[in-house]
Specification:
heterodimer; A: mainly beta; 3-stranded antiparallel β-sheet; 1 helix; B: alpha/beta; 9-stranded mixed β-sheet; two-stranded antiparallel ribbon; 15 helices; globular
């Protein structure tokens, strides 16, 4: 599977360092709450919404997830399509990711998934999920 | 005699520029056209305006409109942004105008929304809006998670709303054909709207055969992309009666910004802010959902109409798909909805599209598409990925 170039920024550095080592990093605050890495398109989550702690680290997730929702995207000329999904990590946070499955795969909410890592074109290793 | 802000202000002027695939003007220039038309419609002059509220869609700024029109000594000048509250801005701006007028800070306010995302005839909507949320939130160069989302197949609203629609479908059994019924109903309305961009007949088969954008969304599930502007003039209920056109009184309003957590148990995609926003608006207006005659609902996608209808309580949660298949939303249906064709078939000026048609219908100016009963019109706005919701309840009748 081919993924367009993804370059890190300061916030995501720890995440992509882990990805290069084959580990999925997830955000956890000092009080043990897991949280999603970003606030959607608004940017990084830098305070725990449960306890408001600003002390949050990247820790290793187990790499298991379940399927919440998915879409098959289509290029205008019909030349390519991609399966993208919202997944729920075993630790609780949701992530938006690519799925490495056939576009016509029979997917169901709750399908068990596990992470693999794919090197984006000239960029970082990126987590992608496959059926487990 | 009114009590509190409900009914204390009214929309007295409505203006629109050329809209659709129209070129040769900037966002503030379209805005100026709409403001001039709205002020003239009200029978006022620009010298009567003492406050201005603005919003844009994709184009980041239109605040030049005040200078273009030579507005002087305004008591209020503010602009709503792409991301906050985005498509919920138009209802929110009318609400703010009502509150400012009720406070006495200003007496006659113009609100204008304009946009000019199509810079040339050969620019597609997809080109314009790719990664637009991130750019709208200030991330000009995509790096980190924004870049990962884009590379993973989620570069913008189409794909994110596809995830929302899929959740609804998998949870409640909603089908693509049912979403198609919404598009078909709105096209039937658009065929009676002279300014609609899409006025040719459409069937559910046409919907099903339109190309995929992001499954489960076909092209005919998605809004148009348009240039142009809409403006409204808002003033006190007392003054409204002396002006040229019949006033449209603002009876109630509400907002809800759900603050979804992207975490286990989230209702994202299944329930929107319309539930809380709608309850607020109805309570303020002192009416119930059954009193609403006409719905003008923010319809960036067919799915958004469905979830909004359910969340306001017009239909039981999860029953929306089966209900819309009956044709209830279309002409002669039991729940007339998006009577100008909406974003799907008329024009896409964010929250100003439903606001424009709400005023047309409340006034009884809908011509061939006018809904006979128009005592109460409910208008909604939706911004971000269901992040923001706003509601207005409008009526041609004064609140006594």
């Amino acid at each position: 599977m081919v993924l367009a170039q993804v370059l890190r920024d300061e916030f995501s550095a720890g995440f992509f360092d882990a990805a290069a080592e084959g580990r999925l990093a997830v955000r956890r605050c000092e009080n043990g709450h897991f949280l999603p890495a970003t606030l959607g398109y608004m940017g990084p989550a830098t305070r725990c919404p449960d306890c408001l702690s600003p002390n949050i680290d990247w820790v290793s997730a187990c790499g298991d997830a379940t399927l919440v929702s998915w879409t098959v995207t289509h290029a205008k000329d019909g030349s390519s399509n991609q399966v993208a999904a919202m997944v729920e990590l075993a630790e609780g946070p949701w992530m938006t990711v690519a799925l490495d499955v056939e576009p016509d795969a029979d997917l169901q909410v709750g399908d068990p998934l596990r992470v693999i890592f794919v090197c984006s074109e000239g960029g970082e290793y990126v987590p992608v999920f496959v059926r487990s | 005699v009114t009590s509190g802000p409900s009914g204390s202000a009214a929309i007295v002027g409505l203006g629109i520029s050329d809209v659709g695939r129209v070129f040769g003007k900037s966002a503030p220039e379209f805005a100026a056209d709409a403001v001039v038309n709205a002020v003239e419609d009200a029978g006022l002059t620009l010298a009567d305006i003492d406050g201005v509220l603005m919003s844009t869609g994709y184009v980041p700024d239109n605040t030049l409109v005040s200078s273009l029109l030579g507005l002087r000594n305004q008591h209020l000048s503010a602009k709503y942004t792409f991301t906050t509250p985005g498509g919920a801005s138009s209802c929110a701006a009318v609400q703010q105008a009502c509150m400012v007028i009720d406070s006495g800070m200003a007496s006659t306010i113009v609100y204008v929304h304009s946009d000019c995302p199509l810079r040339a005839p050969n620019v597609s909507g997809g080109d314009v809006f790719r990664n637009s949320y991130e750019r709208g939130a200030g991330q000009q160069t995509l790096t980190g998670f924004a870049a990962m989302n884009s590379a993973s197949g989620l570069p913008g609203a189409n794909q994110m709303y596809a995830l929302m629609a899929r959740r609804h479908m998998e949870t409640y059994g909603t089908t693509s054909e049912q979403l198609g019924a919404i598009a078909v109903a709105q096209r039937a309305w658009a065929m009676m709207n002279p300014i609609a961009q899409m006025r040719t007949p459409m069937t559910v088969d046409d919907h099903q055969n339109s190309r995929w954008i992001a499954e489960p969304l076909h092209m005919l599930d998605c809004c148009l992309v348009s240039n142009g502007a809409v403006a409204v003039v808002i003033t006190t209920a007392e003054r409204a009666g002396d002006l040229r056109r019949p006033p449209v009184f603002v009876w109630g309003w509400g907002q809800c910004h759900p603050g979804y957590t992207m975490y286990r148990g989230s209702e994202l995609g299944l329930r929107s802010g319309a539930t809380i926003s709608g309850q607020m608006a109805l309570k303020m207006a002192g009416i119930t959902i059954d009193d609403i005659d006409i719905r003008e609902l923010y319809d960036c996608y067919t799915y958004t109409v469905l979830v909004t209808l359910e969340d306001y309580g017009f239909i039981e949660k999860g029953e929306g798909g089966r209900f819309v298949e009956t044709g209830a939303l279309g002409p002669r249906g039991s729940l007339p909805t998006n009577t100008g064709g909406g974003h799907l078939s008329s024009f896409y000026l964010w929250g100003a599209t439903p606001l424009y048609e709400s005023v047309v219908q409340a006034r009884g100016d809908g011509g061939e598409r006018q809904v006979p009963n128009h005592d109460f019109v409910l208008c909604s706005g939706n911004g971000g990925i269901l992040d923001h919701h706003s509601t207005l309840i409008l009526s041609p009748n004064p609140r006594v």
